[in-house]
Amino acid sequence: MNLGEKILDLRKKKGMSQGDLAEVLNVSRQSVSKWETNSSVPDLDKLVKMSEVFDISLDEMVRGNAVEADDNPPKNDNPQKISSLEKRIIAGFSLLGIGIVLFSLLLVLSDFLSAITLASPFLLTGIIHLLVRKHTGLWCGWTLYLLVSQYLLEFTSARPFWGIFQRWIYQYGFTYSVAVTWAMAILFGILILLTYRAVNSPAASGE
What tens digit of pLDDT does each residue of 63-83 get? Predict the structure, then answer.
């Protein structure tokens, strides 16, 4: 905004006509009109007087950009998003680091199958934290559920979660196998509910 536009803007904000301003400054209305169209430049004493009338500093009056800078402060990026991104990256590399160390240690002390089985939850959730931007926790939850359930089905007597609807698993009472199967069914239900809520949340619908 140049000086003429600045004078015009400040005069209108003050609710003054060109004649009103001219009377206060003891000049003609034509002089004010020339200032506002940049046909001429007011003397220093008139600038000082105008800064008093408009209640701003002479620097703001002449430069014309200080007020705009105050009225429109530079917008900073959302600090919460930046903080969330940084936390996700830190968590991702931390989980990957733990997974790699655990895998290397178990590979020396045991065999490859044991090493990859125990290290895979850390490795996979670390990769998810680095690659998945939305619903990271939900993705990790499903990954861990599938890994743990696969392990339980492979190495224990637990049944798939739908086994709770099969009568024969209760023939020996509420055993360890039945308890684990029920736990898997409950966790599956919780993950389904969380997924439904995440997909149907207002934030997801607005995208």
Answer: 754 444 444 555 555 555 556
CA-to-CA separations, 107 to 104, 111, 115, 175, 201, in angstroms, rounded: 5, 5, 5, 34, 43
Between 191 and 71, whose confidence is greater? 191
C-alpha pair distances (Å), 125 with each of 39, 100, 129, 176, 193: 69, 12, 6, 28, 21
37 phi/psi in degrees, rounded to 5: -100, 5
pTM of the model: 0.49
DSSP string, the chain: --HHHHHHHHHHHHT--HHHHHHHHTS-HHHHHHHHTTSS---HHHHHHHHHHTTS-HHHHHH--HHHHHHSPPPPP-HHHHHHHHHHHHHHHHHHHHHHHHHHHHHHHS-HHHHHHHHHHHHHHHHHHHH--SSHHHHHHHHHHHHHHHHHHHHSS---GGGGG-GGGGTT-S-HHHHHHHHHHHHHHHHHHHHHHHHTSHHHHT-
Cα–Cα nearest to 14, from 63, 54, 51? 54
